[in-house]
Amino acid sequence: MKDSANEQNAQKIMAIKKVLGKELVILTHNYQRKEIIDLGDYRGDSFDLSQKAALDKDARFIVFCGVHFMAESAAILAKEHQIVQIPDMDAGCWMADMANSYNVEKAWNEVINITGENSVTPIVYMNSEASIKAHCGRNEGAVCTSSNDSDAFIWAFDKREKIFFFPDEHLGRNTGNSFGIDSERMIVWDPDKPLGGNCVEKIKNAKLILWKGFCLVHTRFKVEHIKEKRKEFPDAKIVVHPECSQEVVAMADAVGSTNFIGKYTENASAGTTIIIGTEINMVKRLAIENSDKKILPLLDSLCPNMSKINPENLLNTLQEIGKKNVVKVDDKTKKCAKIALDNMLTLAS
């Protein structure tokens, strides 16, 4: 019955798309289930989709099949004539919730009071709410994704000697490791502790300050999971997302964004066994799309927020196009957040 209902919903969605034509664009994140991906106009990681939202001039309606911070970013980048909607307003992100504007402002002021305001560049991961992106824009920083984190670090270190990176400790640490930053000069900022749990000297010595935040999907992957898979499939290639811990990343054969993982899988030779450490819906879809290879999950790790988007609520949104689940950002926040997002997009040009 469920498949039949999804098929009927898909047919109705396609009919609406045909009527609206270029006035509608549906963006689908790589973590969406396959039946949503198949209904979209573009699929990709959050960086890819941000670019699509920024460059599309014809669409009046942008429907973002992903989590709320992604739709929020599309709304910040949208033209005045464009309306951004999301099929489920409750599709949030646990990581984004780990850094609120009060704690970030407090931490930022404490750091610059010790180091001087011209010594630190804020870099905020896309997985953050608009107010955090706005903080970043106000302080001459940039947004980054797991596709362009290295470019963002180069850009930031060219400006100032330190980076304050939030909200994902693991992506920040893995990027710092790729730059050869000594572990003693990477400190974690715990907002629940005085000075983030650090002494003044540590803050002065730090080159990279990492907000204590993490992705529940990717921190489920452990070293023992890799050891088990290596034993079972000794010839397999293991590729993981950089939101995993540094210990997991160190044991993998490759690490990269969801787009990277997709291309890595696609470009592998027929017959290759590839074990993937990322959200399970993407792993399942890659297995279907690459039937000439053996694609396995490192662990079955689901993002329940991504899974809140389904054909039924996508159809409901399209049936009330321009009205239902409209994502809005106030003008003051939008102006500052757009600076940080534009800086990110400039890095790619």
What is the structure about, briefly put?
This protein is of the alpha/beta class and 349 residues long. The chain has helices at 2-20, 34-37, 46-55, 68-77, 94-97, 101-115, 130-138, 149-159, 169-178, 200-205, 223-232, 246-251, 258-267, 280-289, 311-319, 331-347; strands at 24-29, 42-44, 61-65, 83-85, 120-125, 142-144, 162-166, 186-189, 208-211, 237-240, 254-255, 273-277, 294-297. The strands form three sheets. The chain has a five-stranded parallel beta sheet, with helices on both faces. Strands 2-1-3-4 form a four-stranded parallel beta sheet, sandwiched between helices.
Structure description:
The protein is an alpha/beta fold and 349 residues long. The protein has three domains: 2-92 and 306-328, NadA-like (Rossmann fold), CATH 3.40.50; 96-216, Rossmann fold (3-Layer(aba) Sandwich); 218-297, NadA-like (Rossmann fold). 46% of the residues lie in helices and 15% in strands. The chain has helices spanning 2-20, 34-37, 46-55, 68-77, 94-97, 101-115, 130-138, 149-159, 169-178, 200-205, 223-232, 246-251, 258-267, 280-289, 311-319, 331-347, and strands at 24-29, 42-44, 61-65, 83-85, 120-125, 142-144, 162-166, 186-189, 208-211, 237-240, 254-255, 273-277, 294-297. It has a five-stranded parallel sheet, with helices on both faces. It has a four-stranded parallel sheet with strand order 2-1-3-4, sandwiched between helices. A four-stranded parallel sheet has the order 11-10-12-13. α4 links the parallel β3 and β4 (83-85). α1 (2-20) runs parallel beside α15 (311-319). The longest helix has 19 residues, at 2-20. It is globular and about 65 Å long. The relative contact order is 0.17. The mean pLDDT is 95.
